[in-house]
Write a structure and sequence with these properties.
The protein is an alpha+beta fold. It is built from 18 helices and 25 strands. It has a seven-stranded antiparallel beta sheet with strand order 1-24-23-17-16-13-12. Strands 11-4-3-15-14-2-25 form a seven-stranded antiparallel beta sheet, covered by helices on one side.
C-alpha cells in the first residue's frame, strides 16, 4: 500500500515494536530516534529475539549528508576462555515439529553484548531527542504488558527450558508451570526499571555500574567467560557498507566480518550477468544460491565468474570470523526528510539465566553448533563474530529509497536477495515483492520453495531439483522481511512480512 504521510513509515516484527517507533516519529523524532525506541520496545514482546544482552546492526542513511554507513554492535567473543570443565554450557533439544535441533545454553554460552553501547552510539551521532523520551514507549509496554501473538507464542513453545528454567525468567515468561501462550499478557516490570535507570544514568551502568557488575559476578560465579575487561573494551564499529550495483540500483549491504553482505553481493553480481529471461527464472535463482553456498563453504573460488575484487576481499575476510546464525528480528524506518534506518538484532535465544533482577538475559551466541565446525569451544578470543544479519538500504535509479532486512537465521540472505530482485528487477510494488513466493537452497543443496509459484515454475524447479520440498503456504521458514520505502514522489510504502506477523505503520 502506498500512502502520503506526515512523518514517515515503520515496519517491524511486532505491533508494540512498530507502535513505539511510530510514536517517536509522530512526536517529531527522526528515523534514528524512532529505530532506537523501537529496538528498546522489541525487548519486551520479541524477547526471544531482541535483548539488552544481545547485539546487532544498523544501516543508516543520513539525508542531509547524503551518507550511508553501518553501525556494527554485534557481539564479541570473550577475551579469555574459561576451562571447559568450569563452564555452564549445556544442551537442550528444541522440537520444531518437523525436526529437532540441539541448542547450547548457559552462562558459558554468552558472548560480550553490544546492544546497549550500539544504541547509545547511534543516539550520540544521529538522534535528536533525549534518551529518556526514547525509552518511554518500551517502559510503558514492559509495565502494562502486551498480548502474546501466535508467532511469539510459537517461539516460547519451542524453548521452554530457556524461558522458565530460571525462576526469575519464569516469573514473567510462564504461568502455572508452562510458558506463556497466545493471548496471555507478557509483562516485565523489572526490565522497565532497568530501562529507566539506563536512560537516566547512561550506558556506563552496563560497564562498571550495577548491571555490568552483575554480569561479571554472574559470569565469575556461574561458569561464564565474561569479565569487566570485556565490557570496558567493547567498541561499536562504524563501517562503510559494501556497495553493490544491481541493474541501475545501488545496494548498501552489511560488510565483512558479516557473512550476509558479501554473500548477497556475490549473488547479485552473478544475477546481473544473466540475460533478463534467464535471470528472472526461479531455477536460475536457485542455481545462484547453490554457487553462493559453495563460495561460503570454500568449495568454489570467489573469483569464478566474478571480477569484483572488493567483493572477493569481503568474502575472504568473513571466513576469518566465527559465524553466529541465530534467531533475529528486524525494524525498518524512513522519515519524511528521507533519513533511513534498517536495524537487525539478535539474542540468539537467550542463555537461560536472567541477569540478576534486571529483567533480561544474555545471549547464547557461543552455543551455536554451526559456528564451531571443529567442535565447541574452538572460537578465537576477542573477535567480532560473523552473522547472516542483513540490514540493507537500496537506492534505485529514480531516487526511491528502501530499507529492508529479515529474521530467519541462514534464510536471511535468501529472503533479502529475493525481495531486492522483486523490487529492482521485476519492478514490483513493496507489498508484492515481500509477499511473492520464496525459495531457499540449504548448504547441502536441498531446495525448499513455497507453493505459490506458478505451475510451470514449480515443474521447472522439481525438474532441476528432484528432491525439492514444497511448502503449501507462505511460512516463517523463509524469513520475515520488514520493509519501508520512500518513492520518488515522496509517498511511502511499508510492509510487515505476514510470515512472521510483521506490522507496518504509516505516521
Amino acid at each position: 500500500m502506498t500512502r502520503t504521510c506526515t512523518h514517515g513509515v515503520v515496519a517491524a516484527g511486532h505491533q508494540a515494536t512498530a507502535t513505539a517507533a511510530a510514536e517517536i516519529l509522530q512526536d517529531g523524532g527522526n528515523a534514528f530516534d524512532a529505530v532506537i525506541a523501537g529496538l528498546f520496545a522489541a525487548c519486551v514482546p520479541e524477547v526471544v529475539l531482541a535483548s539488552l544482552g544481545g547485539g546487532g546492526f544498523l544501516m543508516a542513511h543520513v539525508a542531509d549528508r547524503n551518507t550511508t554507513h553501518l553501525y556494527d554492535f554485534f557481539v564479541d567473543t570473550p577475551r579469555r576462555k574459561r576451562p571447559v570443565a568450569e563452564q555452564d554450557f549445556r544442551t537442550i533439544v528444541v522440537d520444531f515439529g518437523t525436526q529437532t535441533q540441539e541448542f547450547q545454553i548457559g552462562v558459558g554460552a554468552s558472548a560480550t553484548p553490544g546492544m546497549v553501547p550500539g544504541l547509545f552510539a547511534v543516539h550520540r551521532d544521529l538522534a535528536r531527542m533525549p534518551m529518556q523520551r526514547l525509552v518511554e514507549p518500551a517502559i510503558r509496554v514492559a509495565r502494562d504488558g502486551v498480548e502474546m501473538n501466535a508467532y511469539q507464542s510459537y517461539l516460547f513453545s519451542i524453548i521452554p527450558e530457556i524461558l522458565s528454567g530460571d525462576p526469575r525468567a519464569a516469573k514473567w515468561f510462564a504461568k502455572n508451570g508452562s510458558v506463556l501462550g497466545k493471548g496471555d499478557q507478557l509483562k516485565n516490570p523489572t526490565l522497565a526499571e532497568t530501562l529507566s535507570e539506563l536512560a537516566e544514568d547512561g550506558e556506563a551502568v552496563f560497564v562498571d555500574g550495577p548491571i555490568g557488575q552483575e554480569i561479571v559476578r554472574q559470569s565469575r560465579e556461574h561458569g561464564g567467560h565474561l569479565t569487566s575487561d570485556d565490557l570496558k573494551r567493547y567498541h561499536v564499529q562504524r563501517r562503510q557498507p559494501l556497495m553493490q550495483d544491481f541493474l541501475g540500483a545501488r545496494v548498501a549491504l552489511n560488510p565483512a566480518p558479516a557473512a550476509s553482505g558479501p554473500l548477497i553481493s556475490f549473488s547479485l553480481a552473478l544475477l546481473s550477468a544473466l540475460q533478463n529471461d534467464v535471470r528472472q527464472s526461479p531455477v536460475s535463482l536457485a542455481d545462484v544460491m547453490v554457487r553462493t553456498n559453495h563460495v561460503r563453504a570454500g568449495l568454489e573460488d570467489a573469483s569464478s565468474g566474478l571480477g569484483d575484487r572488493l567483493v572477493q576481499r569481503h568474502l575472504e575476510e568473513m571466513r576469518k570470523h566465527t559465524l553466529a546464525p541465530r534467531g533475529t528480528t528486524h525494524i525498518s524506518v524512513i522519515d519524511k526528510a528521507g533519513n533511513v534506518a534498517a536495524a537487525t538484532v539478535s539474542n540468539g535465544e537467550g542463555n537461560g539465566r536472567m541477569v540478576g533482577d534486571f529483567g533480561f538475559m544474555l545471549n547464547n551466541m557461543l552455543g551455536e553448533e554451526d559456528l564451531n565446525p571443529n567442535g565447541f569451544h574452538t572460537w578465537q578470543p576477542a573477535t567480532r563474530m560473523s552473522t547472516m544479519m542483513a540490514p540493507t538500504i537500496v537506492r534505485e535509479a529514480d531516487g526511491s529509497l528502501t530499507a529492508l532486512g529479515s529474521g530467519g537465521s541462514n534464510r536471511i540472505r535468501s529472503a533479502v536477495l529475493q525481495v531486492i530482485c522483486g523490487l529492482v528487477d521485476r519492478g514490483l510494488a513493496a507489498e508484492a515483492a515481500v509477499t511473492a513466493p520464496r525459495l531457499h537452497v540449504e548448504k547441502c543443496g536441498h531446495l525448499s520453495f513455497e507453493g505459490q509459484f506458478s505451475n510451470a515454475c514449480q515443474e521447472a524447479l522439481r525438474a532441476a531439483y528432484p528432491d525439492a520440498r514444497v511448502w503449501p503456504e507462505p511460512n516463517m521458514f523463509f524469513g520475515g522481511v520488514h520493509l519501508a520505502r520512500q518513492n520518488r514522489d515522496g509517498s511511502f510504502e511499508g510492509v510487515g512480512d505476514r510470515r512472521r506477523e510483521g506490522v507496518a505503520l504509516f505516521v
